Every structure is written in structure tokens, then in C-alpha cells.
Amino acid sequence: MKNSLHPTKSHLINTTVLILDEKLPNEVAVDEILEKSGISKGSLYHHFEDLGQLLEVAQVERYAQWVDRSIEILIKLISAAKTREDLLIGLKKVTRLTQDPAIASTRFARARAITNAEHSPRFAKALAAEQARLTDALIDLIEEARNKGLFSSDFDARACAVLVQAYTLGKIVDDFVDDRMDPEAWHAIIDLVVDRVFLIQD
Q1: What average pLDDT does the chain have?
Q2: Could you tell me if residue 54 is inside a domain?
Q3: Among 99, 134, 166, 167, which is most exposed with the fewest C-beta within 10 angstroms?
Q4: Phi, psi angle pair for 79, to nearest 5°
Q5: Does the model's pTM come out above 0.70?
Q6: What angle do CA 113, 66, 20 make, to 5 degrees?
Q7: H or E element in which residue 176 lies
Q8: What angle in degrees, to the nearest 10, is found between the helix axes of 7-20 and 51-80?
Q9: Domain residues for 16?
Q10: pLDDT band at 1, cuts 50/70/90?
Q11: pLDDT tens across 181-198, in order?
Q12: Computed from CA positions of residues 18, 22, 25, 31, in that sequence, does the dihedral angle turn out positive or negative?
């Protein structure tokens, strides 16, 4: 959360983020936010135009938290990698972490936020800023790995950054079906792409 936010506004956002961990945006009511935050309705509408804006800001905050965690993990990985094998092993671990069936709810929340942004220019602008922050961070990390002689230069860094995010989020198409694929088969094909396409070949 930005330090420049008014404490009341920050508390309202944080409270709504916690509620969104349990409910869909269209299930959240003003009265529930007021009860859990202990803040008056007048204060809520002083800081936000309406409930919709508060829900949008809270969804962006959840998205930003996910972006922060992702960047932190990848910075540690790229900084620590000394060899191609180090990077490959680390990326395999990241794949298994981000593709874990146990965090399917996170993929759904991200997809829901993106979908909701389609019809709200205000929401789309705020969410796009967080999305751009992640893409730019991935580009920087790809370039750092290239400077270490570990990552291939045969493709555009931005295209690679978008592809990584696409397959990370894309597993959602298998998260809700009855006959789900073997997770190890999914990991194996991503590992193959990372090994044969992304990394420098020995």
C-alpha cells in the first residue's frame, strides 16, 4: 500500500482486500465493509466516489501484491544464478510454485480482475499500471540473465515476458474442468520451453 494514502482510505482498502479473499466483488456490500473496518459511511464516500471504485482499488491492490511477490521471487532467482543449470533449476521451482493447483483461486482472481477492467476505463488504467510494472520487471530480469550469458537473445524480451505471464495465467483453462491434465505433464512442457527456447544452449 502506498505510504502517501490517508490512513482511513488505506484501512478501507485493506479491509476490502481481506473481504475479497472470501467473496466475489459483486457479493460485497457497503455495510459489510463498514462493519469490519469500523469506519463510517460518510468517511467511505469522502475517500471513494462509490462502492464500485473502492472494489476496483482493492482488486488493483490484490493484483499489486501478487506482482510484488512475483518480482521478489524472480529477482532472488536471477541474482543468485551463476550458471545455466542454476537458472534452469530455479525456473523449474518457480514453475511448480506458480502452477500449483492449490493456488487456482489466485489465477481466477487475476482473470476476474482483467475481465472486470474491460468495461471500466478507470479500473483498466489502474490495473494496466500494475501489469506494466510486472512486464517491465520481467524484461529487466531477462536482460540481466542475458548479461550473465544465461538467457538466449534470439527473441524479443517483451514478447518473452508476456509469454511467461500467458502460460502462468493460462493454466486456468484446466483449473475448473473435471478431467484435468497431469500437473507433471504441464510442468514438463514448460520446462522444455525454458530449457530449449529461453536459455542459452550449451
Answers
A1: 94
A2: no
A3: 166
A4: -65, -35
A5: yes
A6: 50
A7: none
A8: 80
A9: 1-48
A10: very low
A11: 999 999 999 999 999 999
A12: negative
The three cell numbers locating residue 127: 490495473
CA distance 104 to 172: 7
Q: What is the CA radius of gyration of the chain?
A: 19
Total Cβ atoms within 10 A of residue 127: 21
pLDDT at 2: 53
CATH classification of the domain holding 20? 1.10.10
User: In Å, what is the CA distance from 134 to each residue of 19, 67, 72, 115?
Assistant: 25, 6, 11, 18
Q: Could you tell me if 164 and 199 are in contact, meaning their C-beta atoms sit under 8 angstroms apart?
A: no
Q: Grid coordinates standing for 201?
A: 544452449
Are residues 96 and 159 both part of a single domain? yes
> Torsions phi, psi of 151, nearest 5?
-120, 140
Number of compact structural domains in the chain? 2
Q: What is the torsional sign of CA 21, 176, 67, 184?
A: positive
For residue 191, give the 3-state DSSP assignment: helix
Question: What are the tens digits of pLDDT across the range 119-168?
Answer: 999 999 999 999 999 999 999 999 999 999 999 999 999 999 999 999 98
d(CA 197, CA 142): 13
Four-point Cα dihedral 43, 48, 49, 50, nearest 10: -80
How confident is the model at residue 4, as a pLDDT? 79
Domain co-membership, 124 together with 157: yes
